[in-house]
Structures are given as C-alpha cells and as structure tokens.
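User: Can you help me understand a structure? I only have the sequence.
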Amino acid sequence: MRTQRRNKLLKRRLNRSWGGTLALFFLLTLFALFMGLPLIVVVNRAFMPLDEIFIFPPRFIVRRPTLVNFSDMVTVMASSWVPFSRYILNSVIIVGIGTAGHLLIASMAAYPLAKINLPGKNLLFSMVVLSLMFSGAVTAIPGYMIVTWLGINNTHAAIIIPFFCYSLGLYLMKQFMEQLPDSLIESARLDGASEYMVFFRIVMPNVKPAWLTLIIFAFGSLWGNTGGQFLRSEQLKPLAAAFQTLQAGGIARIGAFSAVSLVNMLVPITIFIISQSNILQTMATSGMKE
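Assistant: Let's start by predicting it. Here is the structure, written out as tokens:
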C-alpha cells in the first residue's frame, strides 16, 4: 500500500512542471497582495503625518512614520465626558455575553434538529433558512418594536438578547452536527448518558471547528455594533460608538481617524488569527466517519 501511494505521489509530481508551479505561485501572490492592499493602506495611514495623508496622488507606503495620530486619538478620547474605560467595559459586556449566549443557544437548538427525530423539524429548519434571506434593514422596525415591548430599550440587553436569536449560528451548527456518526451518540445513550451529557461531552467537543468559526462571526458582528437606535445613553454605548463619534469629526480629525481605524481593526483580526489556527488544527485531527 505504501509503495502504491508513493508511486501515485511521484506521478502527480512529475505531471506538474516547474514553469506551471512558478506561474501558479506568482498568480496566487498577486491575488494575495490585491486582497491585502486595504489592510496595508489602513496600517500605513495610521502612521502617516498629515502632509502625507493629503498628498496627491495618494501613497500606499508611509515615508516618515509618526505616532502623532495615536496621541491625537488619545487626547480626543480623554476629553470625552464619559471615561474611555467605560466604553471598553461596555464592549466587553456586550461582546462577551452576546458571543457566549449565542454559541450556547444556537448549539442547543441545532442539536435536536440534527440528531433527534422531532415532528416538524424540517419545517422549523426551513424557517431558519428563510430568515437568512432578510437583510437587517427589513427587520429593523419589527426588531425595535419587539425590544420596546420587552422593556429593554436603552439597555445592553437590547443588543445582546436579539443577537441570541441570530439564525446563522443555528444553521452553521446544525449542518456541522449532521456530520457526526449516529452510532457515536447511540453508544453513549446505551451507556446511560443523558441528553445533556451527550451534548456537552460528546457533541460539542467533536464540533469544535463549527463553534470556533461561530465565535469569529459573532465577535466580529458585536464588536462593530454601535448600539444604533437602541442605546441612547452615552454611558451605555460601546467602544465602536465612541470611535464612530470621533470619525465624524471631519478633516480636522483625519489623523485620529486613521489611528482609530487601525485600533478598531486589530482586535477582530487578532481573534480571527488565534481562532483560525485552532480551527485548522481541529479539522486536521478530528475527522470522523461511520
């Protein structure tokens, strides 16, 4: 068997010419640079002095890097009547509780749809898929009416509770749980495990790539949420709302705006990089088949 595999690998290597490999590598490098160009621009503009920011034609690479933009950002944020630490605390509360709650509720709702024979579950899942077709603009007014009716308007719960019901997480978890072998769950039930034990000790560890991916999506959505029409009190607004206010300062704050864009982007990118490595490792080591 090993000899046959080696022969197949050799044939594959011989069928690929060096010229084709170099051309493919060059093409992929061009695509990577093109996709990474916005990130390069944001990073360089954060360290550009004002004369380089306003120069025409615009430059992608900073010539004289400076930290003045970051000092301006700190000065502007410190002049706010709400402490900067308050904005950070609000973001931590919204992102932390919202992500954890969405992951738990979406996973627990997806498990019976994927692994338990329930009457009408196909209809329920069709409704979940249908809800993905509606944009946020369509559901904005009904969502506001529901939040007001619940009496949680102008509170953090106005953002957190509706996010618990975000249907993309349920769809993702259900599709991934269906790939688990039914024999694994049945053997746990025969050994006397309850449904909660099966869910937390069998199902969730084996769908780790799905909930890590879900964490990335949920964190990104909540981190950029400014509170919109729900949060009117300045003391309840998250960090994204403070950055939005700073960005609305116009040309006079263009340097601080460039620094804010970089800072606002660093946290989601860091979370994505950390979670991506775990996803790749889990996908490579936890494949299961009947």
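Now, to help you interpret it: The longest helix spans residues 84-115. Confidence is low (pLDDT under 50) at residues 285-290. Let me know which part you'd like to focus on.
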